């Protein structure tokens, strides 16, 4: 079983609090091109102050972002490299996003991502996040990796 703790994750992702949304990688398979990671959702999350104070709900856009960060981890692991300070991963597309249940304080978001295609610098993934076995969000994601020098150009 392959796993990564938070310190290892920070070697692959440039995100930091409050936007680092992957707490642990439970497993990944280079053969199957899959990864499973978790985000522990706590009442201390900054976004709960305003979304919504009387019924705290994790914003859907942040659930998608957590899936995208998990996808980026899988891409780097698949390539067998860690990004340098000049590497940036951008969204290219989000398709078929469906939100199935709210996520709140105390939930553990389990994220399963699979690479479905990688060609010409574009990575495609299927991504599902669940809580206690219930799907919270699912989407097809597309990302690209660029160097900082290239990021000022149109993708």
From TrEMBL:
Report the active site residues.
51
Q: Which E.C. number(s) belong to this protein?
A: 4.2.1.59
What Pfam families does its record include? FabA (PF07977)
PANTHER family per the UniProt record, alphabetical: 3-HYDROXYACYL-[ACYL-CARRIER-PROTEIN] DEHYDRATASE (PTHR30272)
Q: What is this protein called?
A: 3-hydroxyacyl-[acyl-carrier-protein] dehydratase FabZ
The EC category is lyase
Q: Which reaction does it catalyse?
A: a (3R)-hydroxyacyl-[ACP] = a (2E)-enoyl-[ACP] + H2O
Keyword Lyase, does the record have it?
Answer: yes
The protein's location, in the record's own words, is:
Cytoplasm
Which keywords does this chain's UniProt record carry? Cytoplasm, Lipid A biosynthesis, Lipid biosynthesis, Lipid metabolism, Lyase
Recorded hits in InterPro entries, A to Z, give: FabA_FabZ, FabZ, HotDog_dom_sf
GO BP annotation list: fatty acid biosynthetic process; lipid A biosynthetic process
Q: What is its main location?
A: cytoplasm
Fetch the HAMAP family from UniProt.
Answer: FabZ (MF_00406)
Q: Which domain of life is it from?
A: Bacteria
What's the stated role of this polypeptide? Involved in unsaturated fatty acids biosynthesis. Catalyzes the dehydration of short chain beta-hydroxyacyl-ACPs and long chain saturated and unsaturated beta-hydroxyacyl-ACPs.
In the UniProt record, the gene name given for this protein reads: fabZ
